[in-house]
Structures are given as C-alpha cells and as structure tokens.
Design a protein that fits this description.
Four copies of one chain form a homotetramer.
Chain A (H helix, E strand, L loop, with lengths): L3 E6 L3 H13 L3 E7 L5 H8 L4 E2 L2 H5 L6 E4 L3 H13 L3 E4 L7 H12 L5 E3 L7 H11 L6 E9 L6 H5 L4 H17 L3 E9 L4 H5 L5 E8 L4 E7 L7 E8 L2 E5 L7 E5 L2 E4 L6 H4 L1 H16 L8 H20 L3 E2 H5 L3
Helix pairs in contact in A: 1-11, 4-5, 5-12, 8-12
Chain lengths: 339, 339, 339, 339
C-alpha cells in the first residue's frame, strides 16, 4: 500500500505533538515536509533528520505526491492555509477554530463542502478515550434518552493577557470545545443559548475586553439541556468532567489524576490532583484524533469532525457572546440570520 | 430546668418523624399534646401512651404551659396554624413552605417579625451533617470566595399526580429546597433567575399543569452563579449533590450510598445506589433541625432558618416560574414589586 | 403480646448504649431493672426515672417476670453473671468474650448448651449493616467460592496501659473480633493459625507483657485463607475494612467516613477520615444486634451468635498467642487438645 | 554526544516492547542489531527496515561499537546470554529472573559484581509511575516508619499449562515481582518467609506440579511485615495494588481502570474494570525502566535494579517454596546456607 503523504504547517506546541505522534505511531504515513515561518532549519534538521523543511508552506503543499495538509498555525492564518490546501486539492486537518469570523468560517466550510476535499477539525477532546467511550455508551442507549448534560471545564490558570487579546474571547477560544462536546454527546443541534460571564480571576482580562468565568445554558432542538461552567483558573488544576443524565441512568466522566495513590494521615484522606497541562491531559486524544484522520483518508471514509461541526460551534459561541451582551437568551436562528 | 413544652400538629409522615425524634432524643422536652384531624385516637394511645391527643389543634395550643407549636399539617393549613400560634403567643416550627401564596407568606412573615415570637422553617437539608459541614467550611474560607454553586437535586420517582396538582408546582414544592440551599451556601441574596422547565417523565404532569424537569440559573447580588438541575425521576435513586467552586478550591458533597461495599465481577466494579427515600436520606437532618430549634428556644438564641428565609425561597420560586413562562431572565426586584 | 422483660447488668459505656437503644427503639421491651456496683443511684434516677436500680445483680435477675439478662460488666465477672442467669433460668446476652480462660469458656458454653437457655454473644460487628450485607451477598454466591479473606483492623489509638494489663492480650481483646468476622464471612472453621506480633506503638505495651501490632494467617478446613493485620494505633483513625476474593468476583467493605465531602485545593483532593470512635463507627451494629437478640427471644428462634461462636474465637486467639510464642503455625486441634 | 549502541536479543512480546519503545522515544540510542533464533528475517526487515538482524546473538554482541545488550530471551537462556555479554565486556539489561537456579544466579551475580559491567534486571513494576511515586513518598517519610506492607497481585487468567511447566513455579515466575516490590518499598532485607499455596483455579496446575493461589508473609530484618496474596485468576482482571501502613499514615496504590466513566442505573453504580493485560497495565513501566537504564549508562550512574536485587528475590522465592513444602516458616539464612 502506498504511504499516505502529509505536510505539516506550524511547528508550535500542537504542531510538534502531531509530528511526533505521526513519526512514532504511524509507519504507514510519510511526512513529506514541515513548514514554519520562524523555526530554525538547523535545529529542525538536528531534531528530525531528513524530513524536508521549508519556511514556505506553499512550496510543500504544492508537491504532487502530498495527500493532505495539517494546519497547526495560529488561528489568524487558518483561512489562508485552508484556501491554499483547497487550491492544490489536498485534504485538510485544521486545528480549531476554522476562523474567528463567523462569515469567513461559513464561506470556507461551504467551499470545502463543494470541493470533494475532506476537512477534519481538531476538536481533540472528542477523541479522549473516556469521552469517546461515554459518547458510544450513550449512542448505544446505556442511559436512555438524554435529558441534561453538565460540562465542567475549568482551566488550570490564566493564559498570558497578550494571548487573550487575540483569542477571540472566552467563548470562541475555550468554551468552543465544550460547545462541540455538548453537540457530540447529544448528537443534536442547539436552538437557544443563555450565557452569563464575568471577570473574577484577573481584572486585566476585563481590561482586555474579555471575561474569565462563564455559565452557559444550551437548549437543544428537542428541549433537552446542557449547562457548561467555565473558569480560566481552577486552583486545583485542569478540571474536565461530564455528567449526562438520561431516563435510564446517569453517566459521569471523571478527571484523570496524576496518580492512583491515596494517602491517609492525621488530616484526612488525600489524592493527587487532576493532570493539569492540556498536553498531558489530552495526550491520548491527540494521538487518537490523528489515527481517525489517517484512517478516514486511507479508507476513504467520512471524517469524524467536519467543517460543519466547526461552524456550528462558532455559531453557538457567537450566540453565547451576544447573550452575555444582551443579557437575554439568544436563539441560534438569530445568529444564523446574519450569514 | 423547666422542660420545654411542645405541641405537635399533624401526624403525617413528617409529624411522626419529629414526634419520634423528640421522644427518643430530647428528654428535656415535654410533648404537651398532639393534634390531628384524622388520626385514630385509640391507635395513638396504643402507640404513644399517655401523651394528650386531640382532634382540635386550638385546644392544645391554648394551654398556658405550652412554649411552642410544631406545624406539620398540609401546606394549605400552615397560615391558619401560624396565626393560631401567634394568637396564643407560642413559638413556631413550621414545615416549608409558609404558604403557596407569596402575599400570604409576606404577610405572615411580617406579622411574626413584629411579634417577638420565634418561627423556624423546616428547611431540613440545611441540617444534613454533610451540607452543614460544607457550609461551615465555606464560611471559614476553606475554598476562598465562592464563584459557582452547582446543585443536583433529582427525586427517585414521581409523586402521585393528585399530590402534584396541589403542590404549588415543581419550583414551589421541590426546587424550593434547592433555592434555600443556594442562599444558605452562598450567604448572599439572589438578584435574578433564569429557568427552563419541561415535561419529560410523564405527560400526566403536563396535564396537571406542572413540569417535571428543570434547569435554573441564579445570579447573586455580587454576580456569582448557582445552577440547579432537577428531575422528578432519577432511575438510580435520590440524587442530592453539591459542587461549590471558589478561587481557592472546590468542595463537593457526594451522595450517601446504601452501603460501603464494592463488588468486582466480570462486568465491572459495582457500588450500591444512593439512599432513595427522603426519610432515610435525611434522617439525621430531621433530628438535627429539631435539636437546633429546641436549643434556640432553650437558650433564647436566634433561629437558624427564619420566616424571612422562607419568604426569599418563595420569591425565587415565583421568579423561576415566571421565567419559564416568559422565556427570559426574571429579576427578584420584579417579583418583589408585587408585594 | 406480653412485653419482653430484660435486666441489664453493668452501666459502663456498652451497658449505656444498650440501655438507651432499648429505651428508644424497642417499645415491646420492658427494662425490669439495671444493676451496677458503682453507679450512683440518684444519678440513675435522674437519668432514667422509674427504672428499678440496684447495686446487686442477683436481686434483679431473681425476679420471676424477667426473661433475659444483658451482661455488660467487665470480662472478669462474665462467668459469674452467666452462672447467675443460668441458675435462674434466664436467657443471656453477654458482651464478648465469655471469659479469658479457655477452660472456663468451654465449661460455660457446655453448660449453656445443655440448659435450654439461649445465650448470645456481643460480636457486634457482625451486625454492622455493611458487614451484614457483605456476608449475605457472599452466602448468596455473589462472588462464588471464597478463596482469600483480608481483614484490616486497626484501632485509632492505644487504650490505657492499665486496661491492656487486664485485657487478656491483643489477640483475646482486639483481634478476637476479627477472628469471629473471618468465621462469619467464611462460614467455615479454622484449622491452623500462624501469627506474628510485636511492640511498635509504645514500649509500655511490651512492659505490660503484650504486643500492639500483629499479622495473623488463618487456614480454614478447606485450605482457604484469611489474613488479618492489626495495630493498636492507626494515626488516621479507626480502620475497619474487609476484602473477600472469590472465584467469581471480589467484595470490599470500605470505611465509613465522617462525611461525604471532598475538597480540592492546591495540595490535592481531600476527604474526611474514617469515623474514629468505636461507638460512632458501630452505632448501627449495637442497635442491630439488640434487635436480633430481642427478635430471637420473642419468636423463639436460634440466636445469631452462640456461645460456641465465642468459644471458637477464644480457641483461635489462643492458637495465635501460642504461634507468636512458638514462632510456628499452631493447629486448632493442638489447642483443643487441652480442653 | 556519541549515541549509545544497543543490541537486543529475543523478539518475543517483551523484546518487541523494548525495541519499539527505544525506536520511538530514545533518539540518543542506536539499535546496532537484533537477534532472534526464530523470527523471520524478511518480516523483520519489513517491520524495522535497515536495523541489522541476525539469528546469532554472538555475532551482534561481539561488535566493538556495542555498549550494552538487552536480554529478552526465555529464562532458560539468560545465563548463557549474560556470560556472552560479560565475555565481550558489554553492559546488560536482563529480563527477570536471572536464572531459575539459585546457584547459577548467585554465580552470575558474583561474576557481574567483579567485572565492572553494569547489569540491570527487568523488575519493571518498580518503574510504574504510581509505584515509583509511592516508593519516593515513603522514602521521604510521608507515612513515617513502615510497619506493614500488603501486596495484592492477582493475574487475570491462567497462562498455558505448557508455560507453567517451565516457569519455575508460581513463586519464581509470578510472586517474584511482589518479593522485589516488597524489598523496594521497604528498602530492607527479608529475614523469614512463611507461605501457603494451593491449587484452586485449575487442577491441571497441580498435575503440572505447581500451585495457582498463595498467601505469603515476609518478616523483615527489623520485624516489620509484608503480606502478599496471589492468584493466577482474578475474574475481574489484573489486580495490582499496594497498601503500606506506617506510624504516620497509610498509603494505597489503586488499580488503573480502563476508563474514568461511572454509570448509575437501576442496579447500582458501575465503573470499568482494571486494565487486564500486563502490557497495557505496565506500558509506562516498560518505557520508564528503559529510560532509567539508558540514563544510568549514559551518565555512568548506578543501576536502579542490580543483579543482587535479582538474587535476593530468587532467594525469597526459594524460601517461599520450601515453606509451602515444609509447612513452616523458613529463614532466609537457611536458604543462603546452601549457596
């Protein structure tokens, strides 16, 4: 079988995770090149030997043998990179979100849909083994019809204020993962959003025009609910849990702790904290999502997270933002009306 | 020391719990009489010996030696019983709620406040040892400033439709406990309510004009949040949990299981379900709240749950009901404006 | 139905537990008298009103209307009290052990067996709801044929050295409960014992001729095993757990914690310690065992813990003591040979 | 820095784990060759490309550039392979045990000790992140002086009877890991062993001259204890737990479950079973132990598991075997006397 040929663009933290995962775990894949505008070519050569490296993505994407492009650059460049891949007829793996602008997202997703090109979005949490298993159990009816989903999603600490300024805001940058998770678990569309948000962690977040704490209610098309609570800073670490209530049972996904040791002393019973760095917490997810992407391409099967999924998440994030501003529920139809 | 003299009115389930608790655990208390319109006097004599029994509450409440009246009758008679106790200058323990009508509640609470009479409301959950301990830990700053409270409150099964018809509705009958819990934990007042509710358990609930599933967001005066999810039927039993997120930590109160046994077999690891009957689940609460009431009277100290607490809970319940009807957030001020 | 008439002897901690439990929970029982050599009669009258009190047990036991005697005096007097009850043809509830001497125990148990008198021994842990449930599940085959039982039994702290001197030693005083538990869970007899013991908590224990830490292996007649580890001082509280391994599964009984609250902070995830006072930990057991005793008498049914059970536990304790001294396994036959 | 050059001998399950781990995670290591008597060279070339492959270990070990040899062949060949490595002055990583014969083990360990060659034994469990963390916490005094160690070690199912016949028996094949774990946790030497063993899982094990269930007590030189229970078949999976009791606290290492999902339904609360294949359960251990080995060689530091550690484990296993046969405790001195 011919090896699948991939080009990776963007050697930041996520790009390196994907590159290392592919090199270690997918012998059936050929990395035909890596592009990054800033990475030092000598360092790259030392680290990755003979893999072709370029400062210019175009040069690599254009290669005829390349099957797909992995876009791991900053969000502001996603649109250009997607267009570049489309131009050359390459399949796409793109980190979330497609774009901070709703209109651009819609346009790109439409373009992909008409093209025959497969585009997968990096909503990595779907591929976390625990969440994946939960979703499958729900699909199989383990807890009956789902009535209420509760998502806890709290970051271990504030990112740099500079990052926040260009992040698109809490809903677009952070909660978007949870919006996707809610849709993934429910396998239904959201029809209305009510969100409250405020600055509790650091006033500098407010000065940067953003919020750091939020509580969002999603109403699905069949009137089932999801409620998501978010904070940029949980002092005890990265808190990522699910609780799904159905008419035949309830399913919880608990945190993944540093270790399974329990200490009893005079003060109490103590366990370790949750894994607190997203790259540790979701190490298996990143590997898993790449596996799904590669297999979908090799077997010509549907992509598990489509551009449309990305668009829906951005629409919900927009509704949430509007809801905070307008201090009232906002319907999805209201947001989609501007598209 | 003179024994405290109590009269108990209403020999339903709750009345019996209180009567038995007092007889078993408070030797410093004298039961000067028990009234019930329907209870068989011969049966009462067999069960409780020489305790004076009457079909007429007035006769017992009027006794000069009586210090306080325990009102355990149906909600519709609370107002009359409270007035009776006030007339004779007796302290009051009254099961929640004071009344289904907001106006009557307000009027009675005002009347009590001006009278020098102590009235305690039976929000028993405050006295559950776990919730009590949680509240104390929060007060002592164990988790810092509280930002988000999550209350899970799911009943093990639907009460009879006949009961639901006269219950005042889900918010007034069931969620009112959670509204009180939220205020108790936060030690702050609510300023706004957003609630969604629907019929998921049984269409007969809808025919009776009520809902059986709800999701309520409370906004407190300092913009902190509480979110409460309710169902009349959790197939796995009575689900009563708290999660409180603060800037220095997080506190969870877990369910109280039938036993502490864990079975491992070929299918998995199995534990017993939560205690599923409210009288088992809250057995310690009922005992504890009576202890607090009796001690407050004997030491002439403030009552731990006042009429004002009862009023606030009814106001929040009304706001929640309005929010479902109006499909928008409702401010507490909007409800209080009609008083 | 005629009330069951009981006399209670010994108003120490355990005596009071039983007395209060009976007064509160068994209206079908009449306490016909309480005897104690040291208790102040005025104080007793203040606390228990009109219940007949005497410094002389004989006087009360001799009353013709008395059905049974509860022996809650120090171990050294058990034999005399049992003989007194037998003399007057009264049923017996006796705190464990029957006697520190194996010979006396054997003699008394034989005497009871020939008499038509029912004697129940206070191995209260059998009646703990969790252990009771575990035993029933095992009996019903929930985990198949039992192969290995592991008992953790650690006290929260050293009793006074004076107590230890008259306790009969660690095996007879403390581990005897675990020997009974092993037999209760397995429903089989022990054939061999291997024990190791030493002084780790306080050298004064050694000076008093006892040990404070032990590890005991029991071999049952069918070659299944139990292993028991004991310490007089677990700094984190009273540690009472079971693990039972069978060919179809495994069953664990976990500790009963002070509360069900979990706190997450910067240092870790924290839970409360196990209930650390035996009267709290086993509150339900004491109530339950009295219920079984009363019901067995009222319905003329077999006693759930017989004198023979008491004898077997003392035999095992003796074998364990010998094993430590002789530094080798000791067979039960070897101990029974001296009887 | 010059790459470390390794040769791997034996392409069975463990050999492949090590080979893949090195290729994926240790770019500073050069695999200079792989030897296996039976592996198909074409298949090897397809799987591992240009890595030199040979049927003859000697040819590879003799290469002057080779720094160390990884011995992953069956136990019966370990001695020869160790001698081969010693002959050529290569460092050694050898899967446990060194040899089934005590005498040969002693002789080889002595030989290594006099040679300047580093030999590390593959007691992989020491490198499991949870056990490693536990050992460090104990070393740092987290639970004070250790008094009792309890090791649960139950396999998910019987290996083929053919395997058992050549395994050296339960103690030498399976429990040896636990003997090493006990020494590792306690950082002390064992002075006496008492073991009981029997056939409970399958009579064929008995016909093969072995046992499948055992309970072993270890007495350490300072009279502290360890107790180990083993079964070849825990129906609920691979059960690998530790409990360590000290005078300042207690530490438990719990199993590693398939997932962190919890399902509540009408029957109870359910969790997934422990990881049940040793290569999954100890995936991180295998990687970790190789990291320790490689770093010890590169930094010329002491090896974390020495030949002496291997010898001690074999001595304890021998004492356990004798104890079962002789039905009495066996001292380590008694075993060492034959060396």
């Amino acid at each position: 079988m011919k090896k699948l040929s991939l080009v990776l663009i963007g050697m930041g933290r996520i790009g390196k995770i994907h590159l290392n995962n592919i090199l270690r775990h997918f012998p059936q894949v050929q990395i035909s090149g890596v592009a990054d505008r800033d990475y030092n070519p000598e360092q790259f050569a030392r680290e990755y030997g003979s893999i072709p490296f370029s400062r210019d993505a175009k040069e690599l994407v254009a290669k005829p043998e390349v099957d797909a492009v992995l876009i791991c650059t900053p969000t502001s460049t996603h649109a250009d990179m997607i267009r570049l891949a489309l131009e050359h007829g390459k399949h796409i793996f793109c980190e979330k979100p497609v774009d901070l602008s709703l209109e651009t997202t819609k346009q790109l997703v439409d373009q992909v849909q008409g093209s025959g090109i497969k585009m997968m979005l990096g909503f990595n949490r779907r591929f976390d083994p625990d969440f994946l298993h939960a979703q499958r159990q729900i699909k199989e009816g383990r807890i009956g019809g789902v009535q209420i989903v509760k998502i806890t999603s709290r970051d271990p600490g504030l990112p740099p204020i500079e990052y926040i300024k260009h992040s698109g805001g809490l809903f677009m940058d952070m909660v978007i993962h949870d919006f996707d998770m809610a849709r993934y678990i429910m396998q239904k569309e959201v029809k209305e959003v009510y969100a409250r948000g405020r600055v509790l962690v650091d006033p500098k977040v407010g000065e940067a025009g953003d919020i750091d704490t939020a509580l969002t209610t999603l109403i699905f098309e069949d009137d089932s609910y999801a409620v998501i609570d978010n904070s940029r800073e949980a002092i005890y670490g990265y808190d990522q849990r699910l609780e799904i209530f159905g008419n035949k049972g309830m399913l919880q996904v608990e945190n993944n702790l540093h270790n399974r040791n329990i200490v009893y002393d005079k003060q109490g019973i103590h366990q370790s904290l949750p894994l607190d760095f997203f790259m540790d917490r979701y190490a298996a997810s990143y590997l898993n999502e790449m596996k799904f992407f590669i297999e979908a391409l090799q077997n010509n099967q549907p992509i598990p997270v489509s551009g449309q999924d990305g668009l829906e998440a951005v629409v919900i994030a927009t509704a949430a933002k509007w809801s905070v501003e307008k201090k009232r529920p906002v319907s999805i139809a209201e947001v989609k009306a501007i598209l």
